[in-house]
Amino acid sequence: MSRAWDRLGGRLGRIAYGGDYNPEQWPRPVWREDARLMREAGVNLVTVGVFSWAVLEPRPGHYDFGLTDEVLDLMHDHGIAVDLATPTAAPPPWFSRLHPEALPVTADGTRLWHGSRQAFCPSSPAYTEYASALVEELAKRYADHPALALWHVHNEWGNHNAHCFCDTSAAAFRRWLRQKYGTLDELNHAWGTAFWSQRYGDWEEIMPPLATPAFVNPTQHLDHQRFSSGELLALHRREAGILRRHSPGVPLTTNLMGTLEKKTDGFAFAPECDLISVDHYLTAADPRAHIGLSLDADLARGMASGEPWILMEHSTSAVNWQPRNVAKTPGQMRRNSLAHLARGADGIMFFQWRQSRAGAEKWHSAMLPHGGTDTEIWREVTSLGAALDSLAEVRGSRVRAEVAVLFDWQAWWALELEARPSQDLRYLDLVRRWYEALWSNALTCDLVHPGADLSSYRLVLVPSLYATTDADASSLAAFVERGGQAAIGFFSGVADEHDHVRLGGHPGAYRELLGLRAEEFHPLREDETIALSDGSRAGLWSERIRADGAETVLSFAADASGGPVPGGPAVTRHPYGRGSAWYIATAPEEGTLRDLLRGIAGNAGVSPAANVPIGVEAVRRHGCGTTYLFLINHTDQPARVAAEGRELLHGTQVTGLIDVPPGDVAVIREDPHGHDGPPLQAPAAHAARPSWT
What we know:
Layout: H1 2-12, E1 16-21, H2 28-41, E2 45-48, H3 53-56, H4 66-77, E3 81-85, H5 93-98, H6 125-142, E4 148-152, H7 167-181, H8 184-191, H9 218-246, E5 252-253, E6 255-256, H10 266-269, E7 277-279, H11 289-303, E8 309-313, H12 332-342, E9 345-350, H13 376-390, E10 398-399, E11 403-406, H14 409-415, H15 427-440, E12 445-448, E13 459-462, H16 470-481, E14 485-489, H17 511-514, E15 516-521, E16 529-531, E17 537-539, E18 543-547, E19 551-555, E20 569-576, E21 579-584, E22 587-588, H18 590-603, E23 616-622, E24 627-633, E25 639-647, E26 652-660, E27 665-670
Parallel strand pairs: 1-2, 1-9, 2-3, 3-4, 4-5, 6-7, 7-8, 8-9, 11-12, 11-13, 13-14, 14-21
Antiparallel strand pairs: 10-23, 15-18, 16-17, 17-22, 19-20, 20-21, 23-24, 24-27, 25-26, 25-27
Helix pairs in contact: 6-9, 11-15, 15-18
């Protein structure tokens, strides 16, 4: 990835800034105005052609590149580089008319028709043939165009069509299963088909997990999710292979969806890209959406293996697809953008450049809104462009985290299958609770795959990993044995990759590491809470635990308020090799979890980026002998933070303290003697509980 960034960064010379540009929606006279206004806003990169298949191939096999030729030439003439997309996410109407069998089918047998986007079955040979031919023509024509800086493969793989249940998909699923298992005996074992008389005697008997009278076989469902993600990945590889063959020196990416999309495994797609790009949109109804933004940014950096990445899409204000599409408040777009930059992005892009006047996304905000340049959005867009220019030196620096949070799409799929102990266990909710505790403590983390190299971290957190492989469980144990600290959340390690329960007592794969045995799970009723021994409360879950070497740090209250297992261990710590492993057998209330993880981090020798009040985001990027401290105030109160250096957004010197106004951002280039962060202590805005060390 470094080589790809060297090429793109050298081409742009500064932080990438721009958005999706869809000139086919506008008459030609508008294009020249667009180019002029892009220069005024500081735009240096635009994504072109994402949804232009019907323009490029108006009839089967007949290509018309006139519009794209003109637009790429115009961009080049104005010094704007192009991220050229393969427009394969939206087949034109003629394709669906010629190949109705290529339209996707739902689990209940409903065929979905043309009229929006991604109306194709990922396993369709016809789709693959036509899409590949178009990409071939596109690559041949533009491989050497001077505007081309980056290839953009497809758009949001699987966002609307990840799972297809048509006959073509069923046949492809059976082929995938033959390759995975080899024999029916192996498949029957993996799927546990002795249950409910499901044993298969012929491959042709196997279907995707269609709508059934009762619960679908869980491993069948899990394998179909793996297959579906893999079919999309195969399409991505095919397009990428064509592009690399014709223009091997041009890096390529695809806009991954992070936690916005459960259906595709981002860690599987990441190695197939020369650099990582992601889309992120705030949930307007969530008052803490900015924390979810940071989580997705840290996940993007994890997918990029610590390299810089591009925020390919976010919104200047409201989106168009939520129940209530609330506009962003003044300054919010700037905070959102700079929060991504703080966490490793070297590109800040939007959907889209000019707000559409027709179509399904006409109420989605854009860099140039319906009201034109005499609008607050436009003023914020041009102001952000200027701010990114003042932060140009940050480009290429890295975020260094000493904490890893294990994140796994396949564990997400497995946890949320039918017939679990509690429907209230939702993967992202569990991950977000732990992440919010880190964020509130200004503790920077990478979100990485369970199979990642953990050797550079001091602390590894496992908020939820219901299903895990033996190899990944052994990797975590080896990390602790070498002196690392780990904390594991409840209902983790209890199943293997086939969704088979690990026998001998829970938590299965982590039983020896944690020094305990959970004899029985006791999920709590909806909205029920129980008391802990320190007087705080917890929810969602409890367990009957028998310690086998682990010490109890917190217990469920000894009386009836302690729930189903009064007096039993709720939080434990177990020395293992040169390190320690912690187990959190419930969902502590927010303050307790925040203090608990802060104490565990302190025990691991991890410091916060800065001592800040809760609600102020602090994260640091590291360059060659230089560090950059980002402070983002998400509160309605001014924040005073210890800092030393030069504030880049305003060009002022900081000596000892900096005041960050409500809703504002500060970026301090710290003094060159280096900075390892202050000693760990409670944020100034709330009192510390006793240490959990």
